[in-house]
Amino acid sequence: MKRIQEVCTVRVRMKRLISALVSLAIVIGLSWALLPVSRAAVIPYFISVNDNILPFNDSTMPLRINDVYFIPHNVLADVGVHYVAVVSAEQLHLYRGATRSVEFDITQGVTIDQDGTMRGWPAARMIGNRFYVPLREVANFFGLTYEILPIIQGITPHDTNVSIIRIQPDLLLNGPSFVGIHRDSLIDTYRRHFGIQPPPRPPDLPEPTLPDIVEIPPDFSDVIIYLSFFDLSAGGLADILDLFGSPPAVIGYRAVFFASAADIAENPGLIRRIFGSGHSLGIHLVDGTYEEYLETSALLLEAARMRSVLILAEPDNETAIDMAQEHGLVLWNTAQRFGEYDTGDRVTNAVSTDSGARQNLKFNASENTAEILPGVIAFLRTNNYTVRRITETVLPIRQGE
């Protein structure tokens, strides 16, 4: 009998405790219901669930009361938290699967889980037909994660801050990256919703005047040009030598002059001038025999006190080809003769369209060559061609190579 009385006494005490807790919860609920709107922070919030940003309006904007975040009851469906809302009874039932559920009673201000355990959570609120549940407690209860990220600060006259509550964030896209991607569109959405005019655009500045574009000439520095002259009695040799000796247009340019026996006999003074100006001297063969080479060499030695193993012959002169190979002479027998062109443009066009890495510009020393040569020299300098003179150690350019 005494044991039964003790059990009854414990039951009575438990009923009184539960009744007191319910009464206290009702008082707290009524107190919250009577809280002025000014107690709730005016910070507007966006909500993102699984990185899907919900439409921004009064029905999706959460509340923040006394540093407690409350979210609308229906925003968690995308993460598997479903609900049954009984508006008339002011009751909300949230559940995830068959094992986790919680029930909010707005009237009594209590929260009870699936085991009948009363949860000491901040009481849910109800505004109109919408329930607001505490974010932290609901997320922890249903195994969810979230973060709160600032978007903009102080864009209104009231220095309002705007943030986004990001529920179940993608770990591959961290917070700053997520905000950086969506920030501009979120700000525009916020301003449209509250009728906030965007900040005034700074006046358009006059476009800066760009300097005239200086065309950079082509660079053919990897193409070697050898200048050579033959037919030295054609009437233009003196003017050609004057051109090469007139700085600064042709500083550093030297050439090779191939003299025949007749050229040396007629112009021994110009032959000496060629050698004394730093140019190379070679022998122009007509027949291509070794005897002709020896005869012309003797005249060259007498006129300029020098010998040369450089020889020039017509491209199809087989005698000169065999003789040069037999006696170790350096034979240049290229076919192209630029002296045949009557204008500088034709010469420079032929040079620019030649794909060879080495070119022999071979001119006859005529008056026409002396006239067009300044333009050709200017073209070579402008386009950065590498201009060299032929020497005994330079590998010759021959016909067919």
Category from helices, strands and their pairing: alpha/beta
End-to-end separation in angstroms reads: 129 Å
Strand content: 15-25%
Mean pLDDT: 81
Name the overall outline.
Answer: rod-shaped
> Percent of residues in helical segments?
25-40%
Count of alpha/pi helices: 10
**Got a strand count?**
20
Q: Please mark out the parts with pLDDT under 50 across 5 or more consecutive residues, or reply none.
A: 1-12, 17-42
Your description of this structure?
The protein is an alpha/beta fold and 401 residues long. It has ten helices and 20 strands. The chain has helices at 2-33, 135-141, 175-194, 237-244, 261-266, 268-276, 290-304, 318-327, 344-353, 367-382, and strands at residues 45-49, 52-53, 63-65, 68-72, 82-86, 91-96, 100-105, 110-113, 118-119, 125-127, 130-134, 146-153, 161-167, 224-230, 256-259, 280-284, 310-312, 330-332, 358-364, 386-388. The strands form four sheets. Strands 14, 15, 16, 17, 18, 19 and 20 form a seven-stranded parallel beta sheet that branches. The protein has a five-stranded antiparallel beta sheet with strand order 5-6-7-8-9. Strand 1 (45-49) and strand 2 (52-53) form a beta hairpin. Helix 4 packs parallel to helix 10 and helix 9 packs across helix 10 (367-382). The protein is rod-shaped, with a radius of gyration of 50 Å. The N and C termini lie far apart (129 Å). Mean pLDDT is 81; it is low at 1-12 and 17-42.
